[in-house]
Design goal:
By secondary structure, this protein is α+β, with helices and mostly antiparallel strands. 25% of the residues lie in helices and 28% in strands. It has one domain: Metallo-beta-lactamase, Chain A (4-Layer Sandwich). Its cofactor is Zn(2+).
Length: 213
């Protein structure tokens, strides 16, 4: 296994930005750079990594607020999310004002993602699954070789994503978790958008929102 990652909570919402890299090529991507860009770039530099791309699970301000500026300043492509989140991207300036974030730069993703797409990072390949419910265009990034999944705000340790925002849908969220995430295997560890890691097996046993009945 050559995939490595570091979780870096950013913004007042303590959003888990993930720095992913292939330890054979040192090629790296930042998943959900919501803010605090100098700290994120310092983490890249400290490890001697070559930042290749920005990957977005969805376009809420705490996940995507820094993406436009980072892409412009570093010349990086923005990969994701699914085009169902276009309206959230369009509304980033309003989101930043509403929640007291620094002004967010608008952007157009270099590549929209679809269910079943793959992303390469050095010698690693991750699979994209479209997991709507928290937002219409939410995606997750799954590394079968590393038994890891970066799930954004779909699932948390002991909880699930909110569905009361525009475009949210509780039934869709539950279907995304049970039909898209569970088949990845009980031993798969997931990195959520907030809070600690857990495994799909642990959540199937104990999460009151989605545990097996």
């Amino acid at each position: 296994m050559s995939l490595r990652y570091l979780t870096l909570p950013v913004t007042p919402f303590a959003q888990n930005c993930s720095l992913l890299w292939c330890d054979q090529t040192q090629e790296a991507a930042l998943v959900d750079p919501g803010g605090e860009l100098p700290r994120l770039l310092a983490a890249v530099a400290e490890r001697g990594l070559k930042l290749q791309a920005i990957w977005l699970t969805h376009a809420h301000i705490d996940h995507a607020g820094g993406a436009g500026q980072l892409a412009r300043e570093q010349g990086l492509p923005i990969i994701g999310p699914h085009r169902g989140d276009q309206f959230w991207i369009d509304g980033l300036p309003q989101q930043s004002a509403m929640f007291g974030f620094p002004p967010a730069e608008g952007f157009t993703p270099t590549r929209w993602l679809e269910d079943g797409d793959t992303l390469s990072l050095g010698r690693e390949t991750l699979t994209v699954r479209h997991c709507p419910g928290h937002t219409p265009g939410h995606v997750v990034f799954h590394s079968a070789s590393a038994r890891r999944c970066f799930v954004g705000d779909v699932l948390f340790a002991g909880s699930i994503g909110r569905t009361d925002f525009p475009g949210g849908n509780h039934a869709e969220l539950i279907a995304s978790i049970t039909q898209r995430l569970w088949p990845m295997g009980d031993d798969t560890v997931f990195i959520p958008g907030h809070g600690p890691e857990s495994s799909f097996g642990a959540e199937r046993r104990s999460n009151p929102f989605v545990r097996d009945r």
